[in-house]
UniProtKB/TrEMBL annotation:
InterPro entries: Lipoprotein_repeat. The keyword Signal applies. Keywords: Signal. Residues 1-21 form the signal peptide. The keyword Signal applies. It holds the Pfam family Lipoprotein_15. PROSITE patterns: PROKAR_LIPOPROTEIN (PS51257). It comes from Uliginosibacterium flavum. This is Lipoprotein.
Length: 143
């Protein structure tokens, strides 16, 4: 009986030890955009844009006033490069997604959450109108 109990304890100890030493699974990288028709949208469904004045690969020229209307598509801390999508560092030290070297942007505040109060919907409409006015410097991102 003692020998069986010792064998059970040893087996459980080995199983526990191997479970503790196993490598944790790393989440798979997910692209920050999806193709919708002939354009790119964020994973939350917002239209993505390229800034026409971004002429150097992997560098954003959208600073100061430009950022009042269009904002960078920010990665989360867990995001990683995947395929043609790369995380670049902006001159302000923040990170931003880029596709094939072209930084990605979205219209800041132009989408109100479902069921949002009228004031939020109005603010989103105003933001969308401001983006429409600034479209001379932006173009819809295409894959």
């Amino acid at each position: 009986m003692k020998q069986k109990l010792s064998l059970v304890v040893a087996s459980l100890s080995l199983a526990l030890l191997s479970a503790c030493s196993s490598t944790p699974s790393v989440p798979e990288a997910v692209a920050p955009a999806i193709v919708k028709g002939d354009m790119l949208v964020s994973t939350s469904g917002e239209t993505l844009y390229f800034y026409k004045k971004d002429t150097k690969p992997n560098e954003s020229a959208c600073v100061r006033d430009c950022l009042k209307v269009f904002g960078p598509l920010f990665p989360t801390p867990d995001d990683a490069d995947i395929g043609d999508y790369k995380i670049i560092e902006r001159t302000d030290g923040m990170s931003q997604w880029a596709l094939k070297g072209k930084p990605l942007y979205l219209c800041t505040g132009a989408k109100a959450p479902t069921g949002a109060p009228a004031s939020m919907v109005k603010a989103a409409e105003t933001a969308a109108a401001n983006c429409a006015k600034a479209m001379a410097d932006f173009e819809i991102a295409k894959p």
